[in-house]
C-alpha cells in the first residue's frame, strides 16, 4: 500500500515569492522615472534653484572654505607671526602647532568680527528670508570682504598684479577683480607678518648673542648657547607681558 505524496511547504513559499517578485518588477517597469528639478523659476530677481541643487552648491562652496580662510582673512598674518615667535623663543614644539592654529583661528574670528557681521546682515540673512537671490547674496557678501582686503593691501603690490594681469590704467583697487585683489592682499599680509617677526626677533637675538659671548669667554664651548638662553628668553617674554603686547599689536595692526 503506497503512501500519499506530500508536497513540502517550501514549494508553496517559493512560488508565492516568485509571483510577488514578478508583480513588483512589472510595476517598476511601468513607473515613470523620477526627475530632479534643477531650476524652479526665473524672474527679475534671478534664477531660483531647487533645494538639491542649492545643497550641492553649498557643499561645493564649503570645500573652498580653507582657501578663503587662508587667502581672504587675517589668518595668514596671525599664524605666521605666532610661528615666528616660537622660532625666536627657540622652543621647537611649545606651543604646539594645534595651539598656534587654534589661537590663530579665534583671533581671526575676533579681527574679522565686524566684517562677518556685515556679511551676515547684508547677504546671508536676507537670502535665508528669500528677500534676495543667490547671485545678489554673493555680491553683497563680497563687498565687506573686498573692503577689508583693500584696507590691508599695499598700492605697490596691487600695481604689480594689475600689471601682470594687463588691466587697464583706469582700474583701481576698488573695482579690480578678485583674481588681482586677493594675491595682492596675500603678498601684503606676508610682508607685514615678516616685518612684525623681525621686530620680535631683535630682543631674543640680543639675548642669544650675550649668552654666546659669555660662554665663549668662560671657555664653555661645549655647552649649547640655545639651551642656556632659553630660560632667559622665557623670563623676558613673561616679565614684559609679551602675550598682551603681541596680541594687542596684532589686533591693532588690522584697524589701520
From TrEMBL:
<dbReference type="GO" id="GO:0044781">
    <property type="term" value="P:bacterial-type flagellum organization"/>
</dbReference>
<comment type="function">
    <text>Plays a role in the flagellum-specific transport system.</text>
</comment>
<dbReference type="GO" id="GO:0009425">
    <property type="term" value="C:bacterial-type flagellum basal body"/>
</dbReference>
<feature type="signal peptide">
    <location>
        <begin position="1"/>
        <end position="27"/>
    </location>
</feature>
<comment type="similarity">
    <text>Belongs to the FliP/MopC/SpaP family.</text>
</comment>
<keyword id="KW-0812">Transmembrane</keyword>
<protein>
    <recommendedName>
        <fullName>Flagellar biosynthetic protein FliP</fullName>
    </recommendedName>
</protein>
<keyword id="KW-1133">Transmembrane helix</keyword>
<keyword id="KW-0969">Cilium</keyword>
<feature type="transmembrane region" description="Helical">
    <location>
        <begin position="97"/>
        <end position="116"/>
    </location>
</feature>
<keyword id="KW-0653">Protein transport</keyword>
<feature type="transmembrane region" description="Helical">
    <location>
        <begin position="56"/>
        <end position="85"/>
    </location>
</feature>
<keyword id="KW-1006">Bacterial flagellum protein export</keyword>
<feature type="transmembrane region" description="Helical">
    <location>
        <begin position="234"/>
        <end position="254"/>
    </location>
</feature>
<feature type="transmembrane region" description="Helical">
    <location>
        <begin position="196"/>
        <end position="222"/>
    </location>
</feature>
<keyword id="KW-0282">Flagellum</keyword>
<dbReference type="InterPro" id="IPR005838">
    <property type="entry name" value="T3SS_IM_P"/>
</dbReference>
<keyword id="KW-0813">Transport</keyword>
<keyword id="KW-0732">Signal</keyword>
<keyword id="KW-0472">Membrane</keyword>
<dbReference type="GO" id="GO:0005886">
    <property type="term" value="C:plasma membrane"/>
</dbReference>
<dbReference type="GO" id="GO:0009306">
    <property type="term" value="P:protein secretion"/>
</dbReference>
<dbReference type="InterPro" id="IPR005837">
    <property type="entry name" value="FliP"/>
</dbReference>
<dbReference type="Pfam" id="PF00813">
    <property type="entry name" value="FliP"/>
</dbReference>
<keyword id="KW-1005">Bacterial flagellum biogenesis</keyword>
<keyword id="KW-0975">Bacterial flagellum</keyword>
<keyword id="KW-1003">Cell membrane</keyword>
<keyword id="KW-0966">Cell projection</keyword>
